[in-house]
Each structure stands twice: as C-alpha cells, then as structure tokens.
TrEMBL record:
Keywords: DNA damage, DNA recombination, DNA repair, DNA replication, DNA-binding, Metal-binding, Nucleus, Zinc, Zinc-finger. Heterotrimer of RPA1, RPA2 and RPA3 (canonical replication protein A complex). This is Replication protein A subunit. Residues 5-103 form the Replication factor-A protein 1 N-terminal domain.
Length: 626
C-alpha cells in the first residue's frame, strides 16, 4: 500500500461536516502531526499535504498511541468523524470517532506544491463530487422504496418526507441522525444522538441553597457496547423526565451537554458526565429492535479491597460462595421501616474472604437462590458494591448493584477451575483480619504501608486516579485556634443543619426540624515527623482523639465559660503528642489547579511494644534486603 495521504482529504471533511453514516464517507487518509496529550485526550493536526485541521482522537485510541501503533508523522484512515466549531473561536475541530492505522511514522511531513490560483478550485472539487454522489444515492433510494408507478409522480424528497411522517418519533430520530456510541462523545461535539438503556435510576432529591430550592435526580445510561455514562437533571428537566425514564427501557437522547466528570462523585467509568435540560429530547425506542447492553466488570481482587474502604468509588468482585445466611430485617432509624438484609461470605483466588450484604430485593430474590444452592459453591459476579469498614472490610449492595450467578465469562471459568482443583481444600482467611482500622485502638492497621510525610508531599500525583492510603507516625505540631473547627449537625443523620425560622434547626437530609443539634469536628491541623510536615483534615471521631474532648465540650469551654485562655490551652495540650495516623491522599481541584488533600482516616496512640517489633522488622529488612 502506498504510504500517502488522500488527495484533498481536508477539503472533503470540510465539505461534509457530519456524514449520515460511515458508509457515505470516501477514503480519507491523513498524516498525524503535532500529536500530544491535552487533558485526558490526544490531539493532533490532520494534514493532507495542502491543508491542516485540528483534530482529537477518541479515548479508545489512547492505548494504541501509548503502545506506539499510532505515531507522530504516521498515517491514519478516518472511518467516521464529526466536525465541530470551537467555542468563542472561528476555527473548526475534527472529532475522530473511528479510525485505523495505515502507516507508522514517516521520515518527513508530507507537503504538496499547489499553485495559489488553483487552490479555490481544489477546495470546491471534493464537495461537488460528494454532493453528486449523495444525490445519486438519494434517487436510487426513491426507486427502491416506492412502487414503479409512483416514481413518475413523486420525487425522492417527497417519498422520504411521507415515510418520516408515518414513523414513530423514535424511528424518525433514528433515520434523521445517526447514533453515536457513548465512547465517542466529548464536550467539543455539537449535535449528537445516542441510543441507550436506562440501567440505574436515582430518587428525586430536593435541595436548598442560597439561590433557592430545587430538585435533582441522576440516571445511568448504557449503550450497546456496554459503555456507561451518568446523566443529571435539575428542576424543570428533573420534573419533565423523572416519570418518562423507566428502568430497563431503551431511549434515543439528544440535545444534552457534556462536561468532565467530577472524580469525587462519579459512579461509572467515564471521563465525562451528561446534563439534560428542559430542551433535551428523550424518546423511547419502543417499536423497533432493542438491545441488551453487555455488562462490563472491573473486578478488584478481595485482598486489594483495603484502599477502597469508606471511599466513594464502587467496586466489582467475583468469587465463590462459602456460606449464605438466612434473610434478616434491619429497622431503619429515619422511618422505622424494616429493610431485608442477607449476608454472604465470598472467597477468591487470593484465598481471602469478605462479607457481602445484599439489601432489599436482592436479599429476597437472588439471595434466596444463593441460599438454596450454597452447598454447590456457585460463582457470583457482583457489580457496584460499596466498601465499608465493618469487621475491617465489608461490602454492601446499593440500588444500582447487580448480581450474576455462574456468569458465562472467562473470569468465572478460571475461578471455577481453580476452586475445584485447589481452592476447595485451601485455608481461607478474612480480609478484615489484617486491615481492621482497629479493634479499639486502631493499632493493627497502623503498621502496614508506613511512609514518611515527605513520601506524600514530594509526590504531587499521588491520589490522582483513586485515593492512596498510608500509615504515618507523627506529632500534631499546630492547631490554629481561630479556624472554624466544627459544624452544627443533625442528631439523626449527622448532616449539616441550618437555623430554622422561629426556633430549632432544619435538616435537609431528614426533612425535619429539631430543637437541638450536635457539634461535629471538621478540623485542619499540621502534623510533623522527622523528615517533613503537612496539613491534614480530621473529622469528628479522629479529631476527638487528637483534641481529647468532643466539639460540644470544647465549644462550651470557649463560649459559655468565656475562657479563651482555657480553650487555647486545650488545643496546645493536644500538640507535640505522638500518634499513629492512617491517612488517605486524594487530588482536589481549586481555581483550575490540582492540590493534594490528606485526610485522617484513623488515629491511635503509640503502642511502644508494637512499635519496637515494627522497628526490629524494619532493621531486619535493611540487613537482608532480599
């Protein structure tokens, strides 16, 4: 194959900015120039030797760029694309949604010598050829779609118009605009339409802030390839679409917007999240062939669950059922409603076990099936589990969780083979035994992943993808007395409350007034060790261990007794006391700048006997590095 670009490739793209389907696209081969990583996508200049156009690769091409399949000065064939305007600029941006590699890097950039006076003619030629070819296709379509006698009296345009008028709205949408896969969407695109199944629907929530009251709800959408995205609707859009969106149904959606997903709150594996407003279009795909999205798992081995404890990120696991408990009912504190719960013990190839709690319908339906077949040790794959710290590490299902029994996937077959040949007779240990944040003192987990503060502060990328967890031995060196060290919290749910009109305190979470509230710490302090120092955040339980009293007691000392000196003395007494800390490291964005956030997850006093054993082990490792 000749290593060359297609003649007038950029002109062809500019003449047809949004092709109806990939079959309508002529062969377009361009050279990749100035390839670079911008944010989380790779951008480049697409060149045909005469013209250049700024372009962006789809996220699924990142692996090919990293491995070197796609190279700077190499050639790619564009199979599908969209051309968008850059906001606030007169330029256009080529969004490549599908392409393939033609050639690795060439020695030089391809350039064509073109006379200036011929340039306008060259630009127009692809457009005329393309339009003529498209019109010819439209005429042929008219002959095929209608009986022979009607061709004489009706044009192709009339025939297509009549067909669209007789279609269901969703079918008209499918015909007038091609469906984009979720993986191809990005904030730079203008017009797009997706075909997705609603795989999770949240409850309608109300909120109150300085701008007033409102409502919001979220959904999770999955396309035919199994790619997921989270969509959020506020106020008018929430009221418009809440009843329309039904779990399990398939929809055509357009006129939404995308933005970079907030890693702290996202619930699906996607770089972007979607917002739908009252002008967005949502049509159910009812009278046509639908699809069942492939369930995509991202399994976490049981022995690697520790870093996810009490984090926002959900996990998927696969394991062999060891035991299943009968269903029980737990009374919810807020409304005294009985919620069904069933516990399972699951093991995997790491020879670790973990307790999984199934709630609500999963406890009764899938849970009962597992209970009846527990003696056969079935394989379970569970998606979207919350990781808690009960018994060290525990897993719980949510409303969006799904459970598959003996799924037909390679991981299940591999696990079954291991269990039947080896695992059944192996000794299993609970993952919680080695990771308990602590029995009562927290000391057990403080001797794993021990680092110095400089290990964290000198590595600004720590916690970028997901929280990183470490143990530290340090002193509290400073607690600023002038900081707002606590907040008013609801006695039921511990969420922040506001002063109600008249008297009492209003809790948005519980939707009720209370005459009293609690004070809970939200404290920032500086900690120091032998190599460095860092600012850390500590919440109520951890701050109480550092300060030595509750927030209510400290507030009473400061305000009711009017003893400012006593208040400051109490904080001073808390400094230069050694502690063992378990901390998490995450990345927060402030004014478009990423900053490290270190949060105290557990605090324990020094156990000198345990500390001596730890130091002896460290000395032994230094003497015998192998």
């Amino acid at each position: 194959m000749a290593k060359s670009v297609s003649q007038d490739a950029i002109s062809t793209i500019l003449a047809n900015p949004s092709p109806d389907s990939s079959s309508d696209i002529p062969e377009i081969i361009v050279q990749v120039l100035d390839l670079k990583l911008t944010g989380n996508r790779y951008t480049f200049n697409a060149s045909d030797g005469k013209m250049k156009l700024r372009a962006i690769f789809p996220s699924n091409m990142s692996s090919e760029i990293i491995t070197g399949s796609v190279q700077n000065k190499g050639l790619v064939r564009i199979l599908d694309y969209t051309l968008n305007d850059i906001p606030n600029k007169s330029e256009k941006y080529l969004i490549v949604t599908k392409c393939e590699v033609v050639s690795p890097a060439l020695e030089t950039e391809i350039k064509a010598e073109v006379e200036t006076e011929e340039h306008d003619t060259v630009l127009k030629k692809p457009k005329l050829e393309y339009e003529a070819r498209y019109e010819a296709k439209a005429d042929v379509s008219g002959i095929i779609l209608k009986p022979k006698q009607e061709i004489v009296s009706k044009s192709a345009a009339q025939i297509v118009h009549e067909q669209r008028a007789n279609m269901a709205p969703s079918s008209r949408m499918a015909m007038t605009r091609r469906v984009h896969p979720l993986v191809s969407l990005n904030p730079y695109q203008g017009n797009w339409m997706i075909k997705v199944r609603l795989t999770s629907k949240g409850n309608m929530r109300t909120y109150k802030n300085a701008r007033g009251e409102g409502c919001v709800f979220n959904v999770e959408l999955t396309d035919e390839d199994g790619t997921q995205i989270q969509a959020t609707m506020f106020n008018e859009a929430a009221r418009k679409f809440y009843e329309k969106f039904q779990l399990g149904k398939v929809y055509y959606i357009s006129r939404g917007t995308l933005k970079v997903a907030n890693k702290q709150f996202k619930t699906v594996q996607n770089d972007y999240e979607m917002a739908l407003n009252e002008n967005s279009v949502v049509e159910e795909a009812s009278n046509e062939e639908t699809f069942i999205p492939e369930t995509k798992f991202n399994f976490v081995p049981i022995d690697q669950l520790g870093p996810y404890v009490n984090g926002r990120e959900l996990v998927d696991i696969i394991g062999v059922i060891q035991s299943v408990n009968p269903v029980s009912n737990i009374k919810r504190r807020i409304d005294n409603e009985n919620i069904p719960k069933r516990d399972l013990i699951v093991a995997d190839e790491t020879k670790k076990t973990v307790v999984v709690s199934l709630w609500n319908e999963l406890a009764n339906n899938v849970g009962q099936e597992l209970f009846d077949n527990a003696d056969k040790s079935p394989i379970v794959a569970i998606k979207s589990l919350k990781v808690g710290d009960f018994q060290g590490v525990s897993l719980s299902t949510l409303g969006k969780s799904s459970v598959m029994i003996n799924p037909d996937i390679p991981e299940a077959k591999k696990l079954r083979s291991w269990y039947d040949s080896e695992g059944k007779g192996s000794s299993m240990a609970s993952i919680g035994l080695g990771l308990s944040p602590s029995s009562k003192t927290g000391a057990r987990s403080m001797y794993t992943d021990r680092v110095s503060l400089t290990h964290i502060t000198s590595n600004p990328s720590l916690g970028d993808e997901k929280p990183a967890f470490f143990s530290i031995k340090a002193f509290v060196s400073l607690i600023r007395p002038e900081q707002a060290m606590w907040y008013r919290a609801c006695k039921t749910c511990n969420k922040k409350v506001t002063e109600a009109v008249g008297s009492g305190y209003w809790c948005e979470g519980c939707q009720k007034n209370d005459e009293e509230c609690n004070l809970r710490y939200i404290m920032v302090s500086k900690i120091s060790d032998t190599r460095g120092e860092a600012w850390v955040s500590a919440f109520n339980e951890e701050a109480e261990k550092i300060v030595g009293c509750s927030a209510d007691e400290l507030d009473k000392l400061k305000s009711e007794q009017g003893d400012i000196d006593g208040y400051q003395q109490k904080l001073k007494e808390a400094t230069w006391v050694p502690h063992l800390f378990k901390v998490s490291v995450t990345q927060n964005e402030y004014n478009n700048e990423k900053r490290q956030r270190i949060t105290v997850k557990a605090v324990a006093p020094i156990n000198f006997a345990e500390e001596s054993r730890f130091l002896l082990e460290e000395i032994k490792k230094m003497r015998n590095p192998q």
